[in-house]
Amino acid sequence: MGFDSMFAAFRHRLLSIDKSRLSLLLAGFMLGNLIAVIASAYWTTPQATPVRSYYSYGLRTASNGVKLHLMSTRPDNIQLKHITTNVTTTSEFGMNGGFFWNGDLLSIAVINDKPLKGEAYDYGSGWYNIDYPKGTLVWDEVTRRFSVQVVQEAQDLKVTDRVRYWAQGGVSMSLRADDRWVGQALDEDMPAFGEPRLRSGAVFDEEQNLYMIVSDKPCTVEQFRTAVKEIVAPKRLVDGIFLDGDGSSQMRNEQVALKGDTRAVYQMMALKQR
Questions:
Q1: pLDDT digits (tens, 9 = 90+) for 175-226
Q2: What is the DSSP secondary-structure string of 164-177?
């Protein structure tokens, strides 16, 4: 092979190599620009703000077949409210509160020594558990602790600061007193004790989380309490109260609207923030 032929072959090979490298460089340049465009679009497009929920909800089934709708939140997120309608027709998230009759509140419902309806010592204002001393769920903002206190009127509640607490009346569940809970509930005049009715309640655990509970179908008091002990914060549950039940068992949140028998109720436990 002559010199000219060798030079021509070398030149041809060099050009082939340069074209190959040029193709690679061009492909890399284009890929880099594509990545830059995608990244630019991502970082300049407004991103959705993560939604923060101030409660959690679930539907759980106990081994006795009772299904419970559960809302859990922190005690500082609860506001007791006087209402005159079904919980599901309000704009609030939460559940029904204590007992009532003809618009009068028959259970304690106070915030900082002020009843929800009327003035202290007024009948039906939320100052009294009418007729009997009854289990009352008390949140003490100073000690950061719940308690269930059996009292007949708000002035008998034991709290650290009388302008830093809330209290919701009902009937004692006595969750850590299985040997005497029946007698205590009967002493507090728990309605329809052995009859299947819709049930509701509010309980707390060792971390001071609050659980608002409504049964899915009618059940007895004993069946409801058994289900609560089994599936609501197992082994961490401390105590709680039964709230008004049957057609008054109502709940509203993003996931569910339980209207009982559509009746109006006159007090609820509402969330301050959702």
A1: 999 999 999 999 999 999 999 999 999 999 999 999 999 999 999 999 999 9
A2: SEEEEE-EE--TT-
Q: Please answer whether residues 12 and 5 qualify as being in contact, where contact means their C-beta atoms are separated by less than 8 angstroms.
A: no
CA R_g for the chain = 32
- Longest pairwise C-alpha distance within the chain: 123
Please give the DSSP secondary-structure letter assigned to residue 77.
G
Is residue 68 a contact partner of residue 213, using CB atoms and an 8 Å limit?
A: yes
The structure tokens listed for 49 are: 């703000």
For residue 42, what pLDDT band results from cuts at 50, 70 and 90?
very low
Q: Residue 106 burial (CB < 10 Å; 0-12/13-18/19+)? A: buried
- Whose structure tokens read 């769920």? 137
Contacts of 22 (CB under 8 A, 6+ apart): none
Instruction: Quickly tell me which residue has 């009746």 as its tokens.
Output: 263
Whole-model pTM: value is 0.82
Alpha-carbon distance 33 to 25, whole Å?
12
Contact 214, 200 (CB under 8 A): yes
